[in-house]
Amino acid sequence: MAYWGGGGAGGWSQGQGPAQRGGRSDGWDYDELGKIYDVDLLKRLIPFMAPYKWRTVAAVFSMLLVSATTFSQPYFMAEALRNITSALIEWKEVRDSTGGAEAQLLLDELNQMVLWYGILLMGLASVAFVGMFFQRRLTGYIGHNILRYLRSEMFRHLNRLSMPFYDKEEVGRVMSRVTSDVTTLQELMTTGFLTVLADIFGLGLIVFFMFILDPMLAVVSLSVIPVLMIFMGFWQKYAARAFIRTRVAIALVNSNINENVSGIRVVQALRREKKNLEQFDELNSENFDSNMQAVRLQGMVMPTVEVLSSIATVAVLIVIAMRVFEGSLDPVDAAAFALGFLLYIQRFFNPVRDIVLQYTQLQRAMAGAHRIFEVLDTKPVIYDKSEAHEFEKIEGRVDFEQVDFEYLPDIPVLRKFDLHVNPGETIALVGHTGAGKTSITALIARFYDIQSGHVRVDGYDVRDINLSSLTRRMSVVLQEPYLFSGTIASNIRYGRLDATDEDVRQAAIAVGADEFVMELPEGYSTQLHERGQNLSVGQRQLISFARALVADPAILVLDEATANIDTATEKVIQEALSRMLSGRTSFVIAHRLSTIRSADRIVVMSEGEIIEIGNHDQLMDLNGHYADLYRMGFQEISGEDALSETTQG
Q1: Closest among 458, 459, 455, 486 to 473, alpha carbons compared
Q2: What is the rounded end-to-end Cα distance, in angstroms, of the chain?
Q3: Order of strands across the sheet with 609-614?
Q4: How many helices (H) and strands (E) does the chain have?
Q5: pLDDT score for 119
Q6: What is the rounded radius of gyration, in angstroms, for the C-alpha atoms of the chain?
């Protein structure tokens, strides 16, 4: 279907549409707090990694290799210090006592030992470097490919979701899930979990090598861990609350900014700048306070870790000194143990610091992943049946049979609505705001499902028709034109990609748009800004008409399509409109007399029911509701038209 109008995601929500009545039934969870480890969520991520399983295995192997080579270095440094020092002492004793060939032999062995340990440590560092390179490259490749797929899946899924979803869901929250939540998941997939896994594996290796060096000193080194675990248990409890506050606070700030920027014309027109700034400052201050509380809590962790690290270091040095003093530990072994354990204590608390720093990132990433899957799990409420009829060609007969329709329970929009439209007939829908006019046209395209009755196109219930085959043969022009970024030509060609440049220009000529387009510096190749803001409202509407015309629809809907076009511009497109309506089943919602008077039938609606129906002359002779509307509103336009004709005469 060529959706030529605007109004954002809820473009059909006019009158009694759901966007104005509120309500939410999509079941999305807006809790900003995520789990730092969610098994179910990780299981859902695994299938996305299946195409890269060997790369994943290689990345995990690289990570393990990096951890093994990195955390084994202090052990070999301690061994090197002990063995080299012992060999050096032995060589010195032999040299001082006997000298000669035996001392030279020991010196050669000492040099070989120094060279071997040097090569070993350099080799470990080199392997760690290569492993880190491949780990980063592989995780980056896997993560970005998964995210590319997720973005495509989300874009595809959002295009499949039904109109009721967009009526109830805020566009800003949808965009947040596609952008910021995907970005946080990128952190999770590329650096987050693998980094934490490496830290956990590294902690295990550190404990292992500590006990190999000296079990007693290992126990002394790890004696502060229970204190750290108790502290972290209390810290996490308060930190989680603080992180919730920061997430909620920044969400409110962003929402307020988005609302004010989107409504900047109203803000400035009503001089709300000062008041809105006061409200924003209040929200911004709350955001500042919540972040400062989180900073204070984070600030407690690092000093605590440093203090415990220092306590463990001092405790190890005291025990070593006592054992040397007692004679149970050789001074050479003491120096080696001191070096090894000091390095391991430092490296033990480095992963702890890293995990603490990764805490908020992982929590945010897991929450983002949860929200992404919520999008993908949201099911369209409007979908094709397995054996849906597919139209090759549409004649344009439309029938409403005893239709009951409501957006929200117990708030009816249409009641037992009956209307039968012949192919090629032009139907004008008239009535006050909320009468159900726009809802009628939305039901033809099956943007919503009715509660009872039937809506048929060419004798088929729309619920039994393949939606794509139906909407391909429909075009809609709304009151607020919606143009997309790109050239004027691409916007006219939007609903019919095979249209030639000549087709595009002929459509523009037919609706009177060619003249102003050719006056632009680049003509049909002119790039439009977002929503076509570098064109006037009238010019944007003319482009919308050209876009509808080039699609050659069988069913055409004009929903207040000429409301934003001045009288002079409207006269330019009247002839084009008559050609557009000719031979097509058309539904016209308008207050312009010129459009309504030419309709085959005018349907006057009130509170979801037809109260009058007939052509203009018949309804004027009836002297009922339509005649009152005509005299109140339309006669003014008629007078303008008559004055224009008199002036021209």
Answers
A1: 458
A2: 43
A3: 2-3, 474-477, 555-559, 585-589, 426-430, 601-606, 609-614
A4: 24, 13
A5: 92
A6: 37
DSSP labels, 358-419: HHHHHHHHHHHHHHHHHHHHPPPSS---TT-B--S-----EEEEEEEEEEETTEEEEEEEEE
**Alpha-helical runs (H) found in 263-272:** 264-269
Which residues are within 8 A (CB) of 108 and not within 5 positions of it... i.e. 6 or more apart? none
With vertex at residue 95, the alpha carbon angle to CA 91 and CA 98, rounded to the nearest 5 degrees, is 125
What lies within 8 Å, CB to CB, of 170 at 6+ separation is none
Tokens in use for 168? Answer: 């109830």
Contact between residue 545 and residue 513 where contact means Cβ atoms under 8 Å apart: yes
Q: What is the pLDDT of residue 11?
A: 37
Count of CB atoms within 10 A of residue 199's CB? 18
**3-state SS, residue 452:** strand
> Are residues 74 and 207 in contact, defined by beta-carbon separation less than 8 angstroms?
no
Could you tell me where the beta strands, DSSP code E, fall in 495-571? 527-528, 555-559
Residue type (1 letter), 126: S
Query: Structure tokens of 164?
Result: 């009721």
Please identify every stretch of the chain with a pLDDT value under 70, giving residue numbers as ranges: 1-38, 99, 170-173, 176, 187-193, 240, 244, 247, 251, 356-360, 562-576, 579, 591-595, 633-649
Paired sense of beta strands 411-421 and 398-408, if any:
antiparallel
| Measured distance CA(446)–CA(444) in Å, rounded | 5
Nearest to 595 by CA among 422, 479, 423, 440: 479
Q: Please, what are the domains in the chain? A: 2-7+28-377 (1.20.1560.10), 398-648 (3.40.50.300)
Burial of 433 (0-12, 13-18, 19+ CB in 10 A): exposed
Residues 20 and 96: their CA atoms lie apart, in Å, by 99
**Looking at residue 639, what is its pLDDT?**
47
Listed in sequence order, the DSSP H helices in 39-99 are 39-49, 53-97
Contacts of 311 (CB under 8 A, 6+ apart): 224
